[in-house]
Specification:
By secondary structure, this protein is α+β, with helices and mostly antiparallel strands. The protein is built from 13 helices and 10 strands. Helix 5 packs across helix 8.
């Protein structure tokens, strides 16, 4: 009788929506680290994900054009698997938006929607240990979009997706009291290719509705080709491209004039050839370019905050606009684009 009564009480609690989650703004908690504010309905599963994002922040903020970039505290909406699947489908690795539609306190300077990190890739180690941390939980890929948006708010979608996918292979290394961010370990994906000319002109809707992983894979190989092909022959191209993005110039004209001696069709053939070569070199988990193809020292002040942090209750009044805002986002199914540009957010009523 007592067990039956307990089950009835539990069923009543579930039916009344008293358990914190995507459809209930009450009962949420805030966990704050050095670089993030994470909002979780469960106080037991978030820690590894938060640590993974701290490693990603250390890695990105010490590298490339992001070394002087301050994102402030990044907001993360941490969802349990069922809520994540309900909101975004189960094939996505996460979602990044420049601002939450509808106002509210949370996510106005960018929001990452994440789920539990089950990769085991973000372990920590002491300063005297030799630690190589592959950031395989999608943390680096997702966070890269906010860094790109901060530095290059007019960057085209293909660069967003391409560089974020390129950064997905980053590794955090620590040993002898030093830390390094390592890039250039390609995915070696066997996905088909989208013609480069179409990549440069495809809209977010095209990507979402028909190109799927073709778009991201081709964009990643465009970045990888530019940085690594022919021992870095085309790396100087990156400067004019970034300047053009900053000025809001058209991608087709920019790319057409940037690669010496290559038309768009010739570039397309070279990117595919490069991608096939990379796929062959990385088969069976092989390292195509060594342990740290491109390395950046991580200064002490950018070390990841991997301590455990106490959680505090989040007011339901703060969670309500956040949850309602993300539920209004377009294409909240198993589509692939993790980045929703400002013009897509502007559609939300």
């Amino acid at each position: 009788m007592q067990r039956t009564m307990s089950l009835m009480i539990l069923a009543g609690t579930l039916a009344s929506g008293c358990i914190a989650g995507l459809n209930n703004p009450e009962g949420w908690n805030t966990v704050e680290s050095k670089h993030f504010k994470l909002y979780a309905s469960d106080t037991h599963l978030y820690q590894q994900t938060l640590v993974s994002f701290e490693y990603a922040y250390a890695t990105l903020s010490s590298s490339f054009i992001f070394q002087n970039t301050d994102l402030g505290k990044v907001d993360i909406l941490f969802l349990q698997q069922d809520d994540f699947g309900q909101l975004l489908g189960f094939r996505r690795r996460g979602l990044v938006i420049p601002s939450v539609p509808g106002g509210g306190k949370i996510g106005q300077n960018g929001l990452i929607v994440a789920k539990a990190d089950t990769s085991g890739g973000s372990g920590s180690g002491g300063a005297d240990q030799n630690v190589a941390t592959p950031l395989q939980s999608a943390s680096t890929q997702l966070l890269a979009h906010l860094f790109i948006h901060k530095v290059l708010p007019k960057a085209p979608l293909w660069f967003h997706e391409g560089f974020a996918a390129y950064a997905d292979g980053a590794t955090y290394k620590e040993g002898g009291g030093k830390r390094f961010a390592c890039f250039g370990d390609p995915s070696g994906s066997g996905d088909p290719y989208l013609p480069v000319g179409e990549l440069l002109t495809a809209s977010w809707d095209d990507y979402d509705q028909k190109h799927k992983s073709w778009y991201r894979h081709t964009a990643e190989m465009m970045i990888d080709f530019t940085i690594h092909a022919e021992n870095g022959r085309f790396l100087p191209v990156m400067g004019p491209l970034l300047d053009g993005f900053a000025a809001g110039k058209d991608s087709t004209s920019l790319v057409s004039g940037a690669f010496p001696g290559l038309s768009i069709d010739q570039l397309n053939a070279r990117v595919i050839e490069h991608g096939n070569e990379v796929a062959h070199q990385t088969g069976g988990g092989k390292k195509a370019r060594g342990l740290c193809p491109i390395g950046f020292p991580i200064p002490p002040d950018k070390a990841p905050d991997i301590a455990e942090h106490e959680s505090t209750p989040t007011p339901g009044l703060d969670m309500t606009p956040l949850l309602e805002g993300v539920k209004k986002l377009p294409s909240r199914d198993d589509g692939f684009p993790p980045w929703l540009p400002p013009e897509i957010i502007a559609r939300v009523k």
